[in-house]
Amino acid sequence: MNKVCVIGTGSTKYGKLNESIVELAVSAAEDAINTANITPKDIQYSIISNVFGVADKQVHLSPVITTNLGIPHVPGLTVESACGSGSIALREGYANVAAGFYDVVLVVGVEKVTHTGTARSTTLFSYCSDFFYEGGSGVTFPGLFASMARAYMYKYEANEEDLALVAVKNHENGMLNPKAHVRKRISVDDVLRSPPVASPLKLLDCCPFSDGASAVILASEEFAKKSGADYIEIIGSGRGASPATLQGRDDITTIPSTRTAAQQAFKQARIEPKDVDFAEVHDCFTIAEIVDIEDLGFFEKGEGVNAVRDGITRLDGELPINPSGGLKSKGHPIGATGVGQVVEVYEQLLGRAGARQVKNAEIALTHNFGATGASCAVHIFRRV
Amino acid sequence: MSMSGGKQVDMVSRNEFIAALNRGRVLLYRCDKCSNIQLATVEFCSRCGSNNLTVVESDGRGRVLTYTILHVPPEGFEGYSPYGWAVIRLDDGINISAFIDIKSSEELPILSKVKITGYDERGIVASIDN
User: Fold this and answer.
1) Which of B34, B1, B38 is nearest to B17 (CA)?
2) Stretch 177-236 of chain A: residues touching chain B, C-beta under 8 Å
């Protein structure tokens, strides 16, 4: 396999945005093209990740975006894997460059849903579950993760205050991210007193519905060197899958796809979890971040909660988790999220992350999944 | 053993599965090769891959593995809010999940006994089994 590099990235702000889905995607792509020091004519293939284009009256996004970038003859593919679409699009781009099919691939993630309102968005998102068993029986994504949270708290020594600490930490980080959706400092009490959404999760345990787009330019090492752009290398790429339902799992406190994807990525990268300097993980709900950091191999099962209590995962801790603010504060435009994590890693590894810079970061990991982890991809990056 | 039946079929349709739910029963497949039991909506044995499967019925009784009380419902569930949703371990050892008609998180400790009662606009419905 050929080495694959990230030579440029771009992102819109995340939040409630007025631009159309196409404008958002093109804006992020333009930023990435400029950062990579290339022109659109250098792009040979495009992969777009998106879930609810239909909500903004635009599906078949790939040709629409390439046409609006002035490269209508560049073939593409649109990927839908629920909230994991972005990392799975990245993986497909990675595979195409690694296999030598293309030297330069544009990956864009985009989502535009906030205009539909909370009830419609909640309903649309529930279609990402196995609808017959889950969404169709009234459970929402907050409800599914609440069920995981209750199972976790029953099995391990954890409580609602512990979950709240994840939200407090990620909001602290998001305060330092100019592109974050929810830039607001919160306390544990704020989280505990926020309205119930799906017990035991409350409003401030949940990420927001966000609009936004993120883009990366992937290139072969040969092209990366020629481009003159600063670049980082992808040294590990892993995929995993889990049963589409919670009922299909032997243990509801773990996400099997995270474990599989992480093991593959670490093996390929020839490193261990202790070698990672920081990680962007899928914290759609506070409980998810705790489960993630255990399943990724950073902490033993049941110990993730201690890591949070002890401040290990804070920006100034031993293993910063979600320096961007994560889905919780930076926001969660679901098609964009997995791509946006790479934007953060690129900026961090090149020392461009400003006030939220992780000191001396050389190796970073991204982890993003769809639904309750039915689809998952993990990537590991290295400063060159 | 709460299971009964034993009819070999090509495939249980979703309508047949729902009709059984409305009788308070959950249709399961027992693998003829490895004896694995699974929900009758999974068309190959998830253990050995065989499609020689025999339909058996669960009486729909089980215990709550985990649950949530929903306060922000999706469309179509506004009139029921707040309500419960639970993952249930049937006495046959198979999990299923269901809407549960309760209003307070105090009403449903983990390992509570519940029973599948039907399928309607709330999807698969279970109630507390006294």
Assistant:
1) B38
2) 195-201
